[in-house]
């Protein structure tokens, strides 16, 4: 059995690299890029943890995971114990371990970060969750006292799943409503297989179902039933329907045939499995030269999906530089390794097409960075006379999402702000209507999986307090 | 789960299906649609509701086999369940008392115009219905349309049944005769809807069209079904499917309908081959 190692030894070690699929191979398949730690890797990395008395890493975790404790159990090779430690507060560990921006959260707050040697907490979390799945370790819940109160959760993305699990664990009767044919929200339709395998999402949702959550797919709250109707049947409601509507730039030519929103492109590929067309019936266009507009994770996902579908040349068109790009560093690195061409400091002006609606180019202009704007990022400014035409035949717009009004329209007394997002109390997630709570992207605007998890947890606590 | 309770083959390529879907049948209004998936590998297929029965809990859809998905759909029979069946989607038709209105259905669009025609008559409108198809066998729901409307006109392109010609020719005559027509609804092939608008425009009458744009989720999430209406981008699934036809950018709409034509051909070719092997 592995042991804690002396402090001096911990300092000497460098962070353990996580193996990845070879770049030349992976651009031709949809298999996961990161391959995960082996048991030896995990123990080696876990042994580096200083087991701080007052750990700072936990401050950086919206899911409140007892990080030093689960890491300690890895060192002790008590992986089951480690898994259960994580599950106390996070019900989606294999997912969070993969898609959380740890470098901005727990690992950023790790004391080793000052020496650029932060513990790879996410990789360890992922290892433990994967190990538990491979070894069929399940959390069994016995002797929970039923509270005989019914809660409706609207939307089965990370916020809804987390809130459901937390509430069912303390005895509530929870029904989770999902508009699409599969639960998971953005985890299923948005994040590609090569970053988050759908079998893993299915598995973790299955575990939440095992805890007793009822999942109703094909149920569009707002259309199949209104929030007002649900309010009659349920004691409390959590609205976590996400920021599902695509945003466009309103450029001339944006409705040409092969201009996709990232939502459409990724939904076709991920949810409908169009990458396996014609084995699956949903088609997707494969451009010869593709431009993806945007600099976030969704833009990277779109670009890398286009590449894997067989596109010869993929350009990422972003008006600032890599430094300002909101995408995770890891995603930028992966995209660059895979041969995505970064056209930074470039702003699209117009998409050009023929009479039949086919795209035959995109007019762009070069930018430079000026003073910082209200977001703190340096504002891009046109450089006159630098217009040029990027030769592309397919364009994907990945500049963020907006609120979909369907749910809000059916919820009397639940106020939204000018962007259509629900107005909530930051601490309790309660909306302007008693008994109705909201969280995740439909409150924050497009944010991260883990912030949605955090909202789900906060809402569960607030709902429990409300129903006491 | 939504189960097929009745299927009828009305023609070589036209089928009608009645599906048990309690919640949807309770909620659906004229003009709305459903999206169904045949199996896990299937497409999400949007279909406008042709009829519904709240007490018996079913909805009816009518479809024409054009590609892989509709060919697969035609293979389904009584008792089969859909992998996914959602609705009601889109905004309902604006049903109220206008006075005299005209409803036009072309091809399988006849099925879509049916519940709208009935509802308009029920609230006290004089409803002049005009239905048309290429040939006699493709005229569907004649009896139902007769009952749903105040007055029914039928055309066939080849003259094999009733009047030879297009629905637009009848429309023009009716508009010349009837002075008080307040509104026209037209559902059918894009070219027919566009032509209807062209005929009604000189009379200063609005034409409501129902657009069958290409969709994925059908709930406003993907933007696949976007269409320019009055200079603004709208989503057919949540802002429509009905729009003022005079404001629709028809060229763009028709272009976007062809986005997957090549891939659909490939898919149906493979599907047909697979069927032959069986």
Describe this structure in words.
The complex is a heterodimer of chains A (468) and B (278). Chain A is of the alpha/beta class and 468 residues long. Chain A has 3 domains: 7-134, Alpha-helical ferredoxin (Fumarate Reductase Iron-sulfur Protein, Chain B, domain 2, Orthogonal Bundle), CATH 1.10.1060; 150-244 and 403-467, FAD/NAD(P)-binding domain; 247-401, FAD/NAD(P)-binding domain, CATH 3.50.50. In chain A, 34% of the residues lie in helices and 16% in strands. Chain A is built from 18 helices and 16 strands. Chain A has a 5-stranded parallel beta sheet, with helices on both faces. In chain A, strands 6-14-7-8-9 form a 5-stranded parallel beta sheet. In chain A, strands 10, 11, 12 and 13 form a 4-stranded antiparallel beta sheet that branches. In chain A, helix 5 (79-87) crosses helix 8 (121-134) and helix 13 (262-271) packs across helix 14. Chain A starts with 6 loop residues before the first helix and ends with a helix. Chain B is an alpha/beta fold and 278 residues long. Chain B has helices at residues 22-27, 68-74, 109-122, 142-148, 167-177, 190-200, 236-239, 250-257, 261-277, and strands at residues 3-11, 14-20, 33-37, 45-53, 58-64, 84-89, 100-106, 126-133, 151-156, 163-164, 181-187, 206-210, 226-229, 232-235, 242-244. In chain B, helix 3 (109-122) runs parallel beside helix 4 and helix 5 (167-177) runs parallel beside helix 6. Chain B is globular and about 55 Å long. The model of chain B has no long low-confidence stretch (mean pLDDT 95). Classes of the chains: A alpha/beta (468), B alpha/beta (278).
Rg over alpha carbons of chain B: 18 Å
Low-confidence stretches of chain B: none
Q: At CATH's second level, what is the architecture of the largest domain in chain A?
A: 3-Layer(bba) Sandwich
Principal-axis shape of chain A: globular
The CATH C-level name of the largest domain in chain A is Alpha Beta
Return the average pLDDT of chain B rounded to an integer: 95
**What's the helix-strand series of chain B?**
EEHEEEHEEHEHEEHEHEEEHEHH
CATH fold call of the largest domain in chain A: FAD/NAD(P)-binding domain
Task: State the oligomer.
Answer: heterodimer
The percent of residues in helical segments of chain A reads 25-40%
What percent of residues of chain B adopt helix (DSSP H or I)? 25-40%
Distance between the termini of chain B: 28 Å
Which blocks of ≥5 consecutive residues of chain A have pLDDT under 50?
none
Major sheet strand order of chain A: 3-2-1-4-16
């Amino acid at each position: 059995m592995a042991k804690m190692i002396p402090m001096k030894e911990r300092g000497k070690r460098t962070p353990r690299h996580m193996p990845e699929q070879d770049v030349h191979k992976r651009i031709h398949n949809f298999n996961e890029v990161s391959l995960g730690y082996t048991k030896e890797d995990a123990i080696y990395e876990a042994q580096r943890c200083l087991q701080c008395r007052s750990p700072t890493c936990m401050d950086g975790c919206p899911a409140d995971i007892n990080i030093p404790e689960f890491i300690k159990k890895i060192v002790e090779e008590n992986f089951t114990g480690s898994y259960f430690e994580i599950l106390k507060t996070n019900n989606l560990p294999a997912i969070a371990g993969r898609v959380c921006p740890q470098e901005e959260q727990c690992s950023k707050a790790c004391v080793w970060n000052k020496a650029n040697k932060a513990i790879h907490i996410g990789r360890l979390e992922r290892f433990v969750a994967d190990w538990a799945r491979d070894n069929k370790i399940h959390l069994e819940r016995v002797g929970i006292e039923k509270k005989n109160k019914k809660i409706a959760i609207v939307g089965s993305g990370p916020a809804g799943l987390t809130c459901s699990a937390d509430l069912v664990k303390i005895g509530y009767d929870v029904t989770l409503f999902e508009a699409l044919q599969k639960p998971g929200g953005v985890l299923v339709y948005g994040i590609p297989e090569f970053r988050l395998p759908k079998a893993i999402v299915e598995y973790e949702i299955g575990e939440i179902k095992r805890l007793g959550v009822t999942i109703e797919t094909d149920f569009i709250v707002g259309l199949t039933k209104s929030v007002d109707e649900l309010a009659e049947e349920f004691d409390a409601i959590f609205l976590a329907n996400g920021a599902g509507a695509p945003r466009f730039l309103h450029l001339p030519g944006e409705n040409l045939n092969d201009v996709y929103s990232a939502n459409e492109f990724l939904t076709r590929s991920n949810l409908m499995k169009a990458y396996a067309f014609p084995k699956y019936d949903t088609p997707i266009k494969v451009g010869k030269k593709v431009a993806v507009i945007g600099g976030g994770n969704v833009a990277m996902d779109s670009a890398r999906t286009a590449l894997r579908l067989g596109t010869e040349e993929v350009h990422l068109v972003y008006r600032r530089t890599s430094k300002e790009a909101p995408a995770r560093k890891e995603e930028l690195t992966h995209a660059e390794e895979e041969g995505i061409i970064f056209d930074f400091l470039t702003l699209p002006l117009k998409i050009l097409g023929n009479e039949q609606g086919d795209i035959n180019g995109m007019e762009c202009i070069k930018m430079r960075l000026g003073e910082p704007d209200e977001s703190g990022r340096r504002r891009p400014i046109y450089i006159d006379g630098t217009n040029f035409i990027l030769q592309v035949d397919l364009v994907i717009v990945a500049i963020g999402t907006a609120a979909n009004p369907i749910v809000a329209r059916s919820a009397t007394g639940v106020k939204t702000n000018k962007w259509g997002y629900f107005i909530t109390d930051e601490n309790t997630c309660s909306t302007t209507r008693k008994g109705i709570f909201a969280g995740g992207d439909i409150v924050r605007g497009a944010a991260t999986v883990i912030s949605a998890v955090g909202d789900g947890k906060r809402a569960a606590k607030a709902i429990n307090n409300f129903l006491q | 789960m939504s189960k097929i309770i009745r299927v009828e083959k009305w023609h070589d390529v036209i089928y009608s299906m009645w599906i048990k879907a309690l919640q949807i049948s309770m909620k659906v209004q004229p003009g709305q649609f459903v999206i169904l998936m045949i199996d896990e590998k299937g497409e999400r297929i949007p279909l406008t509701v042709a009829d519904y029965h709240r007490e018996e809990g079913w909805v009816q859809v009518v479809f024409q086999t054009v590609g892989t998905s509709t060919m697969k759909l035609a293979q389904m029979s009584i008792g089969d369940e859909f992998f996914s069946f959602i609705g009601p989607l889109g905004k309902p038709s604006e049903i109220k008392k206008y006075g005299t209105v005209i409803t036009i259905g072309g091809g399988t669009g006849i099925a879509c115009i049916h519940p709208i025609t009935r509802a308009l008559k029920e609230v006290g409108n004089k409803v002049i219905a005009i239905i048309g198809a290429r040939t006699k066998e493709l005229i569907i729901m004649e009896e139902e349309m007769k009952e749903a409307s105040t007055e029914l006109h039928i055309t066939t392109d080849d003259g094999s049944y009733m009047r030879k010609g297009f629905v637009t020719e009848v429309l023009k005559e009716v508009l010349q005769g009837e002075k008080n027509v307040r509104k026209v609804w037209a559902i059918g092939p894009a070219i027919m809807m566009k032509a209807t608008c062209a005929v009604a425009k000189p009379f200063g009458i609005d034409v409501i069209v129902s657009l069958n744009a290409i969709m994925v989720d059908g709930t406003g999430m993907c933007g696949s079904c976007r269409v320019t209406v009055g200079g603004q981008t709208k989503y057919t699934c949540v802002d429509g499917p009905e729009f003022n036809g005079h404001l629709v950018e028809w060229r763009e709409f028709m272009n976007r309908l062809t986005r997957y034509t090549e891939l659909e051909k490939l898919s149906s070719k493979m599907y047909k081959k697979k069927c032959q092997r069986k």
